Automatic annotation (TrEMBL):
GO terms for molecular function: kinase activity. The keyword Lyase does not apply. This is MacS family sensor histidine kinase. The keyword Transferase applies. Residues 1-168 form the DUF5931 domain. It comes from Nonomuraea spiralis. NCBIfam families: HK_morpho_MacS. Residues 159-196 form a coiled coil. Residues 276-364 form the Histidine kinase/HSP90-like ATPase domain.
Length: 365
């Protein structure tokens, strides 16, 4: 029945309580000129209360045909009141036979169709009541009931609409959570099997050479594409999964390795880290050659995200970075260190004749 269920049960209770109230008025108030007709109206109300309670409990029956019949039955009972009241119609203290029972279809319209539907139903019932009072020259025109009926329709319709929207959002969140759990499970399985095999094929093919090297290159491309696929997942608003940005740097010459779990950072931090990695890879191509290989590793350790760019070049001569900064060539100083420092992170450069390693650390927050 969903979140609407409590609304329909509340309306059913309201119908029964209003029916009892109308019956008590009929039994105690001796001013009705035709009590027999009045009890017939009460009987019709009782039958429809039972039928409507059953019909609205079945989700398949709830719709505009049932709502229209519900409103018409209430109007018929209301319009029968003058025949029961007779000459006392409109006298002070005289209530229409249905009393508050006519508000039930207004509430039903509001729950099903929202504020506008509730306002329309309230307007129809209120117009019928005011028309009956206007027919009697001695009857005072009282707007309190019409105003309260209109407010009830609008307020209940608004609350019902908010409840439906909340239920839909919860349902979507549950579906997304279930889908993400399945994605994470598959990502773990792929990471533990397929990606490791592709990485092995790539490494061994490069070592063997010849046709095996081409096979290794193809395995490397597929590994990078598969890692980007399993890394793509929605991140919280204002955040980005750093893996998806790093995977864009993957190529036959650049191997990108990331964990199976997300590396979520604030979007500016994730974009800054990716830009720093791009600058580091540009340095590899510039100083180590267009065919130089590089590796990008990303991991999460405690409250820090670490990204490492490694190459197999000749290394950076001692003092070269300082001389470059003094000469105004600020590639590493600004493109990497300056950018990461602005994000609250640190950069460590380790160089040796066997290659250079640039380690970028950024806080999770």
């Amino acid at each position: 029945m969903g979140i609407e269920g409590p609304f329909w049960r509340a309306i059913a209770v309201f119908r029964v309580a209003s029916l009892v109230y109308a019956a008590v008025l009929m039994a105690q108030y001796r001013g009705y000129e035709e009590p027999v007709i009045g009890w017939l109206v009460i009987a019709v109300m009782a039958l429809w209360t039972a039928g409507a309670t059953y019909a609205y409990a079945a989700e398949g029956l709830r719709g505009w045909p049932l709502l229209t019949i519900d409103l018409l039955v209430a109007l018929a009972c209301l319009l029968a009141s003058p025949y029961v009241e007779g000459v006392r119609q409109g006298a002070a203290g005289t209530m229409p036979v249905p009393a508050t029972w006519v508000a039930a279809p207004v509430l039903a319209w509001a729950v099903h169709g929202g504020r506008r539907a509730g306002a329309v139903a309230a307007g129809v019932v209120a117009a019928a009541d005011l028309w009956l009072r206007a027919r009697s020259p001695d009857a005072p025109v009282m707007l309190n009931g019409a105003v309260l009926l209109f407010l009830a329709g609008v307020v209940v319709g608004h609350v019902a609409r908010l409840a439906k929207e909340a239920e839909e959002r919860m349902q979507r969140a549950a579906e997304m959570e279930a889908a993400q759990r399945e994605r994470d499970r598959l990502a773990r399985d792929i990471h533990d099997s397929v990606l490791q095999v592709l990485a092995l094929v790539q490494r061994r093919g490069r070592q063997i050479g010849g046709e095996a090297a081409e096979l290794g290159r193809l395995a490397g491309e597929q590994e990078a594409a598969l890692r980007e696929l399993i890394a793509s997942r929605p991140a919280p608003t204002g955040s980005t999964d750093l893996r998806s940005l790093l995977m864009r740097h993957g190529s036959p010459l650049v191997t990108v390795s990331t964990p199976a779990t997300p590396l979520v950072l604030p979007t500016p931090a994730a974009e800054g880290a990716a830009a720093a990695v791009r600058a580091a890879l540009d340095n590899v191509r510039e100083h180590c050659g267009a065919d130089a290989r590089a590796w990008v590793f990303a991991e999460s350790c405690d409250d820090v995200v670490m990204v490492t760019v490694r190459d197999e070049g000749p290394g950076i001569p001692e003092g070269r970075l300082e001389r470059a900064a003094a000469e105004g060539r600020l590639g590493v100083a600004q493109s990497i260190r300056g950018r990461v420092a602005d994000l609250g992170g640190t950069v460590t450069v380790t160089s040796a004749p066997s290659g250079t390693e640039i380690e970028i650390s950024l806080p999770h927050g």
